[in-house]
Specification:
homodimer; 331 residues; alpha/beta; 434 Repressor (Amino-terminal Domain); Rossmann fold; 3 domains; 6-stranded parallel β-sheet; 3-stranded parallel β-sheet; 42% helix; DNA-binding
DNA sequence: TTGTAAGCGTTATCAT
DNA sequence: ATGATAACGCTTACAA
């Protein structure tokens, strides 16, 4: 186990040069004669010298890492988002701090603590309060991910409006009545947008939208539970517009488990287009969102440094509806 | 945005004390008179002084954070594992670096890079090669999570043997023949253990185990795909033992989607007991694993410092079979 | 091209 | 109880 590592000073002594030269060689900056470089490199190789991250951070006044704050990590959406973010950050030679708040009470406090260990932070949706977000922005560069810009804090998000199209499709093209929206608008800006698009589509079709959404979490199991309650009611919905694919999949599984026919008895739609959505029977009608790109774009914004005139303040990425069979369309 | 922060020296000047006293007050160590403490605290409050993480790390010679390396983050298993790990680490006042290798080619290299920014590392299963693992252990304290101890590197894992019980149950109690194991033993030590327990149970029942497992990934979508191939064959299996619940759920959904009856035509079992498993129809027979505790135990081991005489070298956590209906047992 | 020396922001050891 | 001051390990002017 780690026989106390070598310092630059010791390498310098061994190679008979100054620490400055060791630094120049190890970072590849400045002018060093080939012979000297070779000599230093030999010592570095031989003794396995690796510069201390701490010393370097202090001298350079930068941590060399960024953070991404998410409500949780479960499900394909977050996994994909993180991959996009991570790979972009790594290409830039930095490292990533991932923090899932999981609705813990002291989340805000921890997020502020993280700000002390990274150079910049990406915050997903409404994971932390607006005040904490502002406080955070005072301590480090911040980008909101899947949310709206706030007081000069830029945002990267996807276009949620296709939920309106989808709702219109169910209402007008298929002629369904009694639609229910499943998802909690309070939970995230994305769901808020989708719920509003759902309601607006009703108004555009001159129909009264439901007064309330059916509020649940965003995981598959939440969808199954929702199906249980919704479909056991006296007047079950004819179609369910879900806030995301995971819940839609859960609702589908729950409906099928109760012996219902989808889309015959119940039509279902989702959002995201995760892999499972095209593998279930019937396949899920949904909206495709470039999740990976969302993470990558956020990372680029964070890394390239924010602010400055002409900087991106709000990046809205395009999405597209994917019509399959769960809405009632023919195969 | 961050009006260049105050340093301890500046606080010292403002409070008319020395930096040493500022340090004593801010860390709450040493003896400081009430008046002096109050004076310093006032300045700290007023100007919003927060000690620099970099300076502190260098002086204390510790990063104050640990890392956890995983193959990926998708699915409820990893989410739960991370929560257990994270919450234990945070209670200790440290922060967490999460790194998902996602099978990227340069994963090993990145893992070694991470070792330079943390005080200790937990590595899941076979995410990195044995050589890299040893090299890593030379740079920082390491614990293997869901794998076997290696050359003095301790491990924390769950007991996979109940898969043997489950297999015996299918073979003997239900009298099924033609069982298939779904999962890739090369992928992780856990799956290796489970595949071996599956084979041993066959031998114990004096039956020939299948020569090969059906190798796939550990996600739900992989399970659906597996069901498609397996059930379309000339002689489909009578029962499928899956490496985990996610794939079992996928197989179940795939089988149901093809119009098969479960467990009538096909029995299915899993491992983990994730929330979905008790919500599907039929409910999944599986093995309950204390995933959260697995993460927490790993974190505690990492934090309390490894090595030393009498240290834990291999912690195997108890698991239990959960009999439900997907194996053919009555409701 | 190379070396000297001054930071970077803490903590901790001595004196006083 | 408090203050100088020396680490901690590196980068980077500035000199030579």
């Amino acid at each position: 186990m780690g026989n106390r590592r070598l310092t630059a000073r010791e390498v310098a002594k061994l190679a008979d040069v100054s620490v400055a030269t060791v630094s120049r060689v190890s970072r590849g900056t400045g002018q060093v004669s080939p012979e000297t470089r070779a000599r230093v490199l030999r010592v570095i190789e031989e003794h396995g010298y690796r510069p201390s991250q701490m010393g370097r951070a202090l001298a350079e006044q930068r941590h060399g890492s960024v953070a991404i704050v998410l409500p949780g990590l479960a499900g394909p959406y977050f996994s994909e988002l993180i991959q996009g973010f991570e790979s972009e950050v790594m290409d830039a030679g930095a490292s990533v701090h991932i923090f899932g708040t999981h609705h813990r009470a002291d989340a805000d406090e921890h997020v502020l603590g993280i700000a002390a260990r990274v150079d910049a932070v990406a915050v997903h949706g409404d994971t932390i309060g607006a005040d904490t977000l502002r406080e955070l922005a005072a301590r480090a560069p911040v980008v909101v991910l899947a949310g709206r810009p706030l007081d000069g804090i830029p945002a990267v998000r996807a276009d949620n409006s296709p939920i309106g199209e989808l709702t219109r499709h169910l209402l007008v093209d298929h002629g369904y009545r009694r639609l229910t929206f499943v998802g909690d608008p309070e939970g995230s800006p994305d769901v808020t947008d989708r719920w509003e698009a759902f309601r607006d589509a009703h108004r555009d079709a001159r129909l009264a939208p439901p007064r309330n959404p059916f509020r649940i979490g965003l995981q598959q199991s939440d969808g199954v539970l929702a199906a249980g309650e919704l479909l056991g009611a006296r007047r079950p919905p004819r179609a369910i517009v879900c806030a995301n694919d995971e819940t839609a999949l859960g609702v589908l599984i729950g409906a099928l488990g109760r012996g219902l026919s989808v889309p015959g008895d119940l039509a279902i739609t989702g959002f995201d287009d995760v892999p499972m959505s095209s593998l279930v029977q019937p396949r899920l009608t949904t909206v495709r969102q470039p999740v990976r790109e969302l993470g990558a774009t956020t990372a680029r914004l964070l890394i390239s440094g924010l602010g400055g005139p002409g900087a991106v303040m709000d990046a809205v990425l395009a999405t597209e509806t994917v019509m399959r069979e769960s809405c009632g369309c023919p195969l």
